[in-house]
């Protein structure tokens, strides 16, 4: 949802006049589409059919790449916002897109952390942590 807000807010401005927003649009739309594809894959449990793919590793790499590229998109978007814009509605939408790009970057960073824990097998739940072997 956050990625959708980023590219929807940028798309509603005159982004084609500023080259910097082309990069922000590419990153936000590209990772939004890939995120939706991963979501549908897990929703339909298609990852169980492709068991030979190391899904925790794939998700960790995807989330890390998304976090790094969203850092560049956030910095680019925030630097391109001009408070002296002659169109006030463009300024508001671009500033909001910068804010949501920052939130999206943080969300992908947190997802990277949890994907790393899942990949390394560090995650546990209450049921597995209560079982001990006292033989």
TrEMBL record:
<dbReference type="InterPro" id="IPR013295">
    <property type="entry name" value="MAL"/>
</dbReference>
<dbReference type="Pfam" id="PF01284">
    <property type="entry name" value="MARVEL"/>
</dbReference>
<dbReference type="GO" id="GO:0019911">
    <property type="term" value="F:structural constituent of myelin sheath"/>
</dbReference>
<feature type="transmembrane region" description="Helical">
    <location>
        <begin position="20"/>
        <end position="44"/>
    </location>
</feature>
<comment type="subunit">
    <text>Forms oligomers.</text>
</comment>
<protein>
    <recommendedName>
        <fullName>Plasmolipin</fullName>
    </recommendedName>
</protein>
<dbReference type="InterPro" id="IPR008253">
    <property type="entry name" value="Marvel"/>
</dbReference>
<keyword id="KW-1003">Cell membrane</keyword>
<feature type="domain" description="MARVEL">
    <location>
        <begin position="1"/>
        <end position="120"/>
    </location>
</feature>
<dbReference type="InterPro" id="IPR050578">
    <property type="entry name" value="MARVEL-CKLF_proteins"/>
</dbReference>
<dbReference type="GO" id="GO:0016324">
    <property type="term" value="C:apical plasma membrane"/>
</dbReference>
<keyword id="KW-1133">Transmembrane helix</keyword>
<comment type="similarity">
    <text>Belongs to the MAL family.</text>
</comment>
<keyword id="KW-0472">Membrane</keyword>
<keyword id="KW-0812">Transmembrane</keyword>
<dbReference type="GO" id="GO:0042552">
    <property type="term" value="P:myelination"/>
</dbReference>
<feature type="transmembrane region" description="Helical">
    <location>
        <begin position="56"/>
        <end position="81"/>
    </location>
</feature>
<feature type="transmembrane region" description="Helical">
    <location>
        <begin position="96"/>
        <end position="116"/>
    </location>
</feature>
<dbReference type="GO" id="GO:0043209">
    <property type="term" value="C:myelin sheath"/>
</dbReference>
